[in-house]
Amino acid sequence: AAVGAFSLREVLDAFRGCVTERREVLLEPYLSGWWGLIRFLQSLGAVFGFISKDAVAKVQIMERHRRGEQGQHYESLQSMVEFELSRGPGELRGRPDSGCRTVLRLHRALLWLQLFLEGLRTGHRESRTSTICTDSYNASLAKHHPWVVRKAATLAFCALPSRDAFLEVMNVGPPEQAVDMLGEAIPYIQSVYGITQELFAQHSLLDLP
């Protein structure tokens, strides 16, 4: 599913469709939003390879849960948490491919992407994307990565293209249009992030190993 050009509209539509009236986060649109973000990472070249590979692996684990025998429990993040917790804490901590642990990894990466996209949106033409990206990374994913990964990441960010090149990658027309659509998309991503954060905090799942 991860081949093809990145389209910001696709990400916007997916995250817009993620949250129900009851503030449940639906997994199908969540995962399709992630495929869009993965295409975004892949369009930036090898720099983000280590993050996009990991995201692909995590999204595929979630798709297997979704399609598996227990698929009905993986309709929303809320039903997934309830189902996996009902199996007991040992089961959750002992399973590297549990939905909760897998989503937590995606959730942490989502914060970084959200901060990065917001930085691109509010920046100006001369803004250095490497700085925006490094600041976003340090405020999110960095604390979950070992030193050697952090070092490689911040080095890789130095090779990032200009802000205008990023806005072109969005595939929605001129930079101003990309900035407008980011303004539309980011609140939906923030909303999904916020609800997930709250749900995981409530059940003490934010530090699952």
TrEMBL record:
One of its GO terms (cellular component) is plasma membrane. Keywords: Cell membrane, Cytoplasm, Endosome, Golgi apparatus, Lipid transport, Lipid-binding, Membrane, Nucleus, Transport. It catalyses: N-(9Z-octadecenoyl)-sphing-4-enine-1-phosphate(in) = N-(9Z-octadecenoyl)-sphing-4-enine-1-phosphate(out); N-(hexadecanoyl)-sphing-4-enine-1-phosphate(in) = N-(hexadecanoyl)-sphing-4-enine-1-phosphate(out). It is a peripheral membrane protein. The keyword Cytoplasm applies. Belongs to the GLTP family. This is Ceramide-1-phosphate transfer protein. It comes from Mionectes macconnelli (McConnell's flycatcher). The lineage of its organism: Eukaryota, Metazoa, Chordata, Craniata, Vertebrata.
